[in-house]
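Good day; I would like, with your permission, to put a structural problem before you. What I wish to show you is a protein chain and, alongside it, a tokenised description of its three-dimensional fold. Please examine both parts with care and let me know of anything in them that strikes you as inconsistent. Thank you for your consideration; the sequence and its tokens are set out here:

***
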Amino acid sequence: MSTHRRWYRAGAPALVLGALVAACGGGSEAQQSTGQDADSARPDGAAGGARIVVVQVRELTAEPFAEYVTVTAEVQAERDVTVAAEEGGVIRAVLAEKGTRMAAGQPIARIDDRVLRAQFEQAQAEASLAAETWQRQQRLWEQDRIGTELSYLQAKYAAERTAAAARALQERLDRMTIRAPIGGVLEERGVEVGSTVAVGSPVARIVDADPVKVVGGVPERYADQVVQGAPATVGFENRSDGVEGRTRFVGSAVDVQSRTFLVEVDVPNPGNALKPGMQARLSVRLRSIDEALLVPRDAVLRSADGYVVYVVVEEAGRSVAQARPVQLGAGSAGQVVVDAGLSAGDRVIVVGQQQVAAGDVVRVVDAAGEEPSR
């Protein structure tokens, strides 16, 4: 690969350092033409034809690291209920408009109940007569032994039967008022005054969106790493900050089409800023490492046998680049864990790594191009 191509891959920081490399390289043609000793002009006294490369390094320290899997997710309402009519009839009153925040049990609409109410009143009267008949028959039979046991039992069961019939009509009468089964916002209302509804007809939709649940499909290869209660972070396009939460549900089955399993995370939603149906970025923690060695991904280079990282070591009073084969682990946010090949305290070349080769003499500078104090 040509020098020009290698500089292009390194990016702008490498271009700056490349200029410093040229300034710190071997003797110039003018020096050679005047017979000046090139070695005496090298900043660190490097002898022979060894070149000097200017680099920046990061000294490795063990630090905590958490591995996450990030998927595209969807915001869903905590509860989304379609309200159906439990009795048939004509709508005589509409008691709530769309967008109204409803409390559980609050009326939405009322069905014409005049016929059913008359039936209920008749049943109440029959139940009252049966109850009084039973009370008299009970006194006659239990105290004076007047009448027959059969008449006694018939009066008793008639009172119970008519009371039950009245209660059933009372229940039906109550159902003529269609009520919100949950608290939430009246998202849809499908009836108006004069509409005819049958038993089971959809009447309204109640949405409870505080909190919301964020649902995403995690690839099946992470099935043994995602657990219920795992920390999670949710990001939204309309919010600059992420929301922290925990997985409340981890699916026990994999979808055969997408090869993913569902994960749900609860997110508070005061003010209903998050709308069901919105997209989100769901990051679920897979594992955490208390002491990990992290290096920038750009510092890791491919080799014929895998991956290498260049570190700076001291040899005979000079700073020299050394190639270290490494084994990589999990990665996140532009960094990767080095499982083997490096130790805490190693100085990893993070800028200029594209220009060095094993054995090159290097000069370590900071971001401003100055040598750090020792």
Notes: The domain at 68-78+208-289 is CATH 2.40.30.170 (Elongation Factor Tu (Ef-tu); domain 3).
